[in-house]
Design a protein that fits this description.
This protein is 43% helix and 16% strand. With 410 residues, the chain is α/β, with parallel strands linked by helices. The chain has two domains: 2-210 and 382-407, Glycogen Phosphorylase B (Rossmann fold, 3-Layer(aba) Sandwich); 214-380, Rossmann fold, CATH 3.40.50.2000. Helix 1 packs across helix 17.
Length: 410
């Protein structure tokens, strides 16, 4: 099939969770015999010069991008208070992007237009007008839920009020669009169930994040045990809030039990308060050149998310590299884990301290959890198998085969 994949950010190079999730689908769909063209929004936050993108990638995807200044502008944000539109959404719409999209749709015929995230949904009307392709939303999260959780987690009352306003308007938009697509591919079964409860009547398939397991080679030759680490983009509010909570409530207790254990923090766009942090046994690295090498060099991954949604790409990657993972329930959403077997779940300060103490003090136990994590990645999250199911979902849509509202394939 011929697929137009519209991305809300640059999917290449795949450096953060969002871009990795988009790119791995591109690769998997092509591997399954589909022809995929990629049109991406190039934003200031994730700006990449198109000429710096790998030539082979550009060739196999006929890659194009259009710059959109999605930066939050104080005046625009203020004026938006007096409208009923979602500020999160309108930042991604420009006539320039729409013109380029129409140009592509006029020149080529596609079987499916694949929308990567809700942020590019404003272009749906233009697609309908200029193409007969089936339109599928790839939902990485139920977006408004993330903003509701952020609002709930913040203690600043003014910030809480504004986040609640953003989440309310985003929810109104997200629900108004729910039945305007031809299908939805969620990243977790939790999200698929949520959409159904919210009134979704169109076909839904649960397509989790997948990986090419063969590219993830465990290397324990230089693994520092015991050690604790976190890796994730630090321009995402949920990561920043989670790390702040972890440092203030959990980590301060660990050096008293394990004086020589370090916590390593890696990820792009570290905020100043972290780069300038002076805290015992905490090493702030910022962006690392090779994430696989970094993850292999450490032993216990912690994911202290108290907000956010969808599925954490880095957890699947950590599992594939044989890491022991301690995560909140929110961080582990969408993953078919067994608590205590292939991952440890901790939602409170005491639960995190207990889990980390167990892993740091018992290497045999930690290694056993890591071993089963690798098995889970191999058996449940192989990208080729996942993309074959997505291809079949597309084929059924384009053949107008009657489908149930839920198609819970994992």
């Amino acid at each position: 099939m011929k697929i137009l994949q519209i991305c809300s950010k640059m999917p290449f190079p795949p450096k953060d969770g969002g871009s990795i999730a988009m790119n791995i689908l591109t690769e998997g769909l092509i591997k399954c015999g589909n022809q995929v063209k990629v049109l991406a929004v190039n934003t200031p936050k994730h700006f990449i010069k198109e000429e710096n993108i790998d030539r082979d990638y550009r060739k196999k995807t006929a890659f194009q991008s259009v710059f959109i200044n999605t930066s939050v502008k104080p005046l625009d944000a203020f004026l938006n208070l007096f409208s009923n539109k979602s500020y999160n959404i309108i930042r991604f719409y420009t006539t320039e992007f729409e013109k380029e999209l129409i140009k592509i749709l006029t020149a080529e015929k596609f079987d499916v237009v694949h929308l990567e995230t809700l942020w590019v949904a404003p272009y749906l009307d233009a697609i309908r007008k200029h193409s007969n392709a089936k339109i599928v939303l790839r939902s990485q999260n139920v977006e408004y839920v993330i903003w509701e959780r952020l609002a709930e987690a913040t203690t600043n009352q003014l910030k809480k009020w504004y986040l609640k306003l953003l989440s309310k308007r985003l929810k109104e938009y997200e629900l108004s669009m729910l039945n305007k697509y031809d299908g939805i591919a969620t990243i977790t079964d939790i999200d698929a169930s949520a959409f159904l409860k919210l009134g979704c009547l169109i076909p839904i398939i649960n397509i989790p994040f997948g990986i090419d397991v063969s590219r993830y080679q465990e290397d324990k030759s230089n693994t520092e045990f015991p050690s604790v680490f976190h890796i994730g983009a630090m321009d995402w509010m949920a990561n920043v809030d989670g790390i702040k909570w972890f440092l203030e409530n959990v980590w301060k207790q660990i050096p008293a039990i394990f004086p020589n254990v370090n916590l390593y923090l890696a990820g792009r766009n570290m905020p100043d308060w972290l780069t300038q942090l002076k805290m015992k046994n905490v090493v702030v690295l910022g962006e690392v050149e090779d994430s696989h090498k970094f993850i292999n060099s450490k032993s216990i991954m912690m994911v202290p998310l108290t907000s956010g949604g969808g599925m954490r790409v880095k957890i699947i990657e950590g599992m594939a590299l044989g890491k022991t993972i301690v995560s909140t329930s929110i961080g582990a959403e969408g993953i078919e884990y067994e608590n205590g077997k292939n991952m440890l779940i901790a939602n409170t300060e005491n639960e995190f301290v207990t889990a980390l103490t167990k892993c740091l003090g018992d290497k045999t136990f930690s290694d056993n959890v890591a071993h089963h994590a690798r098995i889970l990645a191999e058996t449940k999250y192989d990208n080729f198998i996942i993309c074959k199911k997505l291809t079949e979902f597309y084929r059924q849509l384009t053949s107008n085969i009657q489908q149930p509202t839920t198609n819970n394939q994992t």
